[in-house]
Amino acid sequence: MKNYHGTTMLTVTGGVSNYQALPKNPVLHETVSCRANHVICSNKTAVFVPVRSSSNVLNSSFSDKGCTQLQTFHHVASKRWLCRLGDSSSFDDEYRSSRNIAISLFRRYRNAVDRGGGHNLKEFINAGVNAYALGCTEEGLRDELTDMKESGVEIEAMQAYGGNTTLKSKIISEEIDECILWLSIIFITILCTPQPTVVRWSSTPPVSEEILLQWKGFCALIANAYYIRGMAWLPVKTLQLEQMAVMGRSEEPSVVASRMRLVFSTLEVVSPQWPRV
After folding, report:
1. CB-hemisphere CA count at 13 Å for 217?
2. What are phi and psi of 242, to 5 degrees?
3. At residue 81, what are phi and psi to the nearest 5 degrees?
4. pTM for this structure?
5. CA nearest 30: which of 48, 52, 61, 63?
């Protein structure tokens, strides 16, 4: 057990040994005690999340899809967490409902896969972190995407810089599975960071216990390399061995490397350790 910036970090046993990982707190049953409205900002837009009532239950309309129906207001504020996802009107639209959040995430996932590049990956991560903060769950967002796939909904692609052509395409099951896995890895990575990094406005676990057990060791290995040893990369073989220990199989080296990059990039977004050049 070690102390990092005033936060006690525990050793994860099992698939991962001798690595500090999740902070000492009931991670998946976290509650927030706050007496004032909290804001999540994007440029000059702030999403106001209702405070807890005297019964210690959030005064918000969380749907069974796992996300809050949000009302947005224009306000200039400075808070610890800031994700810039475009202009204020775009932010309002993308976070108005759980379906809009799912569409926003899926469009950014496709953009990152089709076009590559660190910037496009960070755009997806930023959207994922905001979804975490707003109380979304991987199961709820999966349900939204599945409903749209079964309804034959076509998702509009994100436009390239200077492009005028708008392309639409239907959702396929494999895309949903991979998009939600990426999102789950982002959520679990946030759980592996010293608190507080991102405040979550729901006590509902962001991922299922099954997914958590499969990926927390993987994310914890990378988080410890990042925080304790100041590393930005790990040997792929080390992570493949972790997968073998937990899941009984390992993915291809290129796939493992891409998942590692997703974790490191998420850590750089929510908890930057080095000055930007």
Report:
1. 20
2. -60, -45
3. -105, 130
4. 0.69
5. 52
